[in-house]
Structure prediction request, 404 residues.
Amino acid sequence: MAQGRTRLLRRRPVPDQRPLPLLGLQDRNQRRHARGLLPPGPGLRCARLGHRTGRGPGGLHGRGRLSALPAFTVALQDGTKVPCNAGQSVLEACLAAGLPMPYNCRSGECAECRAVLLSGSVDESPGADSAVFTAADRRKGRILTCLCAPTSDIALEIVLRDGAHAPRIEHVTATVRRVERASASVVQVAVDCPREIAYRAGQYFEWIVPGIAPNRYFSAATAPGGAELVFDIRLYPGGAVGGLVRSALAPGDPLELAGPYGHFGFTANDRRPAICVAGGTGLAPVKAMVEDDLARKSGRRIHLLYGARRQDDLYDIGLLDGWAARSDRFGYTVALSDEPAGSDWDGPRGTVTGLLADTVFDGFGAEAFLCGPPAMIDAAMPVLEGIGVDPDDVYADRFSPAKR
Prediction:
């Protein structure tokens, strides 16, 4: 979870910040067989040093404290040169320099930050998902800038986004306004920032909480505007953040945030219909996107397919009902995958991707926006292709429990 693109995926926003679509489907089985077995490509040596801590630009990334002086230079094909500290990822150095880099997950799962390494060498941290960053990518000399730190001066070929209106990454200390149980498995946390934070619907923020490492990332669940941010937090058994929001986080508490990050969101072409598929708290960024789109009164027609396990896991259904009642451009359908057989649920049962397969859609000309567990996104891809959605028009935000 774009230009220079590989096919399958990812969501994405306006023409100036359009994320790289996920990888094409035809090679995915081969990619799966290669998972975990791919040797480092030319110019790479795999630094088995553990995963990054997940901090934003200039943070620590499992390699020790960053040097005070730039150690290397990252040169782009247009002549731009960026200083990079020892142990700092290429992506972080470029973001810190204000470059509109293509990226989303910052952990190797979306491959939107891929670039061609023209010269020099890098250390690659573990974490690349071989389903989206393939053996073919490596043979072509590509790297993931989020996982690679230079070990010499390097030169890259990468397609930058139009960053004229890109929101600036900020670090703020917000104040918790409310912590509310939204469903059996979701808690909503609303915070007040010291000022309005500019972001795009679909982007996410980093939570920097003492004692919880690596840092976690949560999508903004409401449209931009104002100083309040709302986050939907999935409660995982034994999860550190789940324990925090259930028992420790209270109104008035400070919460350090960094962001916004990522490029998930609707594109600027609002004349094309949008198929949104959300699983669990993958609903959060989709809510922000729909709310923002309806407020702007665009011409986009949106249908949301929302999947959960049981009725008591559903949340914000009243909000969705309200949007559907007020606008004929929005509609939604819910599927439950694990609802007890004897319950009063009279809606669709099964996975949300099964619902997608059973729903009569003409996908030709449509864009698809997927947000939720990686397995859901992988399962949705062939279905979308089967109904006529071009893989280049599929955008996705993969939610990994370890990072959310």
